């Protein structure tokens, strides 16, 4: 017969065993939960930069092209080149647009501009041409086959000019030279065929020299683009339509861009835009110019097909944003705010504080996807509050509002289908 004391001891041991098992089980769950959880907030992203467009550029044509022969032997002019390129870099631009002709006569001058770009950590958007295409500097006219041949020779001969990430346009506003404008010469088919043939030749030549350079970006007048850039041609030219466009109002500008993006089925690079053009905008004060540029760029941020912009021009002409003494107008700070924008960021997690990768984060400016740590960044222009949405497969959606630059978010999405193990972890997390 078992004594009463022994029974009590057995019950005590059993209770202690059950309690120990529960504690071990709880510890196991906690360890598993912590193992599954990634402390993404320890990741450091403060030095990262977001952009509205992958290409941001400012044009130098009034100096890099128009003065090419005049300043080719003027070594003191290097200071002017350096000052202009350094100021362009300070706006946060990714590229400087250099328009020096591709003829051998001008290569030494072109090299000086390119070297200034490299010193200032800028890629180059080559927007020159062979002088003979439009008859610049008294050069004899070229036909289409001659143009393609000489462009290939230029790239092969001067391969050291190029770096990965550069853009090379062999024939900007091609309608202004050669056989002429396809709107007037009844040669639309020939014009398209020439653009495609030169595009292919240029891309092949850069592959041959082992440089990852974006070929062509053949900028053209918007009316020419409406005629030339049908979906088939756009696709053959790399899916990019480059527009040199000047109109009176920012609203009209954006409407034209959206129309051409829709009709071409392509992405849009703004090869040239600026104000004031006297015949279009009349006269503008420095303040009015800045307001026009701000309104235009703001409209462009809302068009997802726009992937690049090039302001025309930095110094020189009615649209300049620095004067000849390199003194900045108010427009410079406006452009900087768009080229080097403020950002908001944050993390998206589930109910267990685990990061969710692949969440679509959507604002009227941009759509981004969270990384493996559930982290996202969005560019932001401080012009009122901005709704943002969060969507992920298998989770309920969420909404929030951006109200200030630098704002950080911590968004929790609720899982739609919760299995036993998930519910168990949620329970213990609540404890």
Entry keywords:
431 residues; alpha/beta; Immunoglobulin-like; TIM Barrel; 3 domains; nine-stranded parallel sheet; four-stranded antiparallel sheet; 13 helices; 39% helix
Placed side by side, the strands forming the largest sheet appear as 5-4-3-2-1-9-8-7-6
How many helices? The count is: 13
Largest sheet: 9 strands, parallel
Percent of sequence in beta strands: 15-25%
The CATH homologous superfamily of the largest domain corresponds to Glycosidases
Gross morphology: elongated
Q: What is the terminal separation in angstroms?
A: 44 Å
Task: Give the count of structural domains.
Answer: 3
Rounded mean pLDDT is 90
According to DSSP, the number of beta strands is 16
CATH topology heading of the largest domain: TIM Barrel
CATH class of the largest domain: Alpha Beta
Question: Mind explaining what this structure looks like?
Answer:
- By secondary structure, the chain is an alpha/beta fold.
- The chain has three domains: 1-36; 39-48 and 343-430, Sandwich (Immunoglobulin-like), CATH 2.60.40.1120; 55-339, Glycosidases (TIM Barrel), CATH 3.20.20.
- The chain contains 13 helices and 16 strands.
- The protein has helices spanning 4-36, 61-64, 78-90, 107-119, 144-157, 188-208, 222-228, 231-236, 250-264, 278-281, 286-301, 331-339, 420-430; strands at residues 55-59, 95-98, 123-126, 167-168, 214-215, 219-221, 240-244, 267-273, 306-311, 342-349, 360-362, 367-369, 375-380, 386-391, 398-402, 408-412.
- The strands form three sheets. The protein has a nine-stranded parallel sheet with strand order 5-4-3-2-1-9-8-7-6. Strands 12-11-14-15 form a four-stranded antiparallel sheet, with no helix packed on it.
- The longest helix is centred in the first third of the chain and has 33 residues, at 4-36.
- The protein is elongated, with a radius of gyration of 30 Å.
- The two termini are 44 Å apart.
- Residues 35-44 have low confidence and may be disordered.
